[in-house]
Amino acid sequence: MPDLGTLTKLNAIDLSNNSFDPSVLPAWLLALETLTSIVIASGGLYGQVPNRIFTLPELQQVILSNNDFNGTLDMTGNISQQLQRVNLLNNRIVEANITQSYNRTLVLVGNPVCLDSEFSSSHFCSIQEDSIIPYVTSITKCGSTSCSSDQSLDPANCGCAYPYMGTIFFRSPLFADFTNNEHFQQLETSLWTELGLQAGSVFLSDVRFTSDDYLQVKVRMFPSTGTSFNVSEVTRIGFDLSNQTYKPPQGFGPYFFVADPYAHFAGADDSGKSKISTGAVAGIAVACGLVLTALTSWAIFSFLQKRRAEELSGQTNPFASWGIAQKDSGGAPQLKGARLFSFDELKTCTNNFAENNEIGSGGYGKVYKGILADRTSAAIKRAEYGSKQGALEFKNEIELLSRVHHKNLVSLIGFCYEQGEQMLVYEYVSNGTLRQNLQARGIYLDWKKRLRIALGSARGLAYLHELANPPIIHRDVKSTNILLDDSFKAKVADFGLSKLVADTEKGHVSTQVKGTLGYLDPEYYMTQQLSEKSDVYSFGVVMLEILSGRLPISKGRYIVREFRMAIDPNDQDYYGLQGIVDPAIHDAAHTTGFRRFVQLAMECVDESASKRPTMNSVVKEIEVMLHDEGLSSGSSSTVEFEHAGTASASHLYRGPVVTARSNSSASIAGEPPHPELKHSEP
Question: Which SUPFAM superfamilies would you find in this protein's record (predicted)?
Answer without folding.
Answer: L domain-like (SSF52058), Protein kinase-like (PK-like) (SSF56112)
